[in-house]
Amino acid sequence: MTHTDDPVAARAARQLRRMRNFYAAGVALWAASSAWTTWDAPGSRPMWTSVVLLAVFGALLAMAWRWLRQLEPDDATRPSHRAAFSGGHGRHALSKP
User: Fold this and answer.
1) Rounded distance between C-alpha atoms, residue 79 and residue 11, angstroms
2) Which one is predicted more confidently, 77 or 38?
3) Which terminus in the chain has less CB density within 10 A, N or C?
4) Does the pLDDT at position 95 exceed 70?
5) Which pLDDT belongs to residue 4?
6) What would the pLDDT profile of 8-35 be if each residue is shown by its tens digit?
7) Among 11, 8, 24, 9, which residue's Cα sits nearest to residue 62?
8) pTM for the structure as a whole
9) Can you tell me whether residue 91 is helix, strand or coil?
10) CA 58, CA 20: separation in Å to the nearest integer?
11) CA 5 centroid distance within chain
12) 16 neighbors 68 (Cβ within 8 angstroms)
């Protein structure tokens, strides 16, 4: 059974895509807010609050992206990361015949 056959995994992937978009919007909002408050009042409490919320939304975005990547099915036509760089001749360049 693949991830695309599992209805629970498909629902989870749809939800993660929606949350990823929400977190990306949060990152954009808090980045703008952090830049504005840093320009207006550097070192103030609102600036640090914006920076902390930017970090929180950035971490949530990274986690949603990572979980979504894990839910994607492995495509047989696309080479794996190792196969794409190894050239199929072994692990190191020196191991080529």
Assistant:
1) 27
2) 38
3) C
4) no
5) 55
6) 888 888 999 999 999 999 999 999 999 9
7) 24
8) 0.66
9) coil
10) 10
11) 24
12) yes
Residue type, 15: Q
With cut-offs at 50, 70 and 90, classify the pLDDT of residue 6. Answer: confident
Residue located via tokens 């949350």 = 19
- Six-digit token string for 8: 């629970």
Q: What percent of the chain has pLDDT over 70?
A: 69
Q: Which of 15, 11, 19, 17 is nearest to 57 (CA)?
A: 19
Q: What sections of 5-80 are H helices per DSSP?
A: 7-40, 45-71
* Structure token pair of residue 64: 């949603």
What lies within 8 Å, CB to CB, of 34 at 6+ separation is 47, 50, 51, 54
The contacts of residue 80 (CB under 8 Å, 6+ apart) are none
Q: Sign (positive/negative) of CA torsion 75, 81, 84, 89?
A: negative
The tally of CA atoms less than 13 A away on the side-chain side of residue 23 is: 17
Rg (CA), the chain: 21
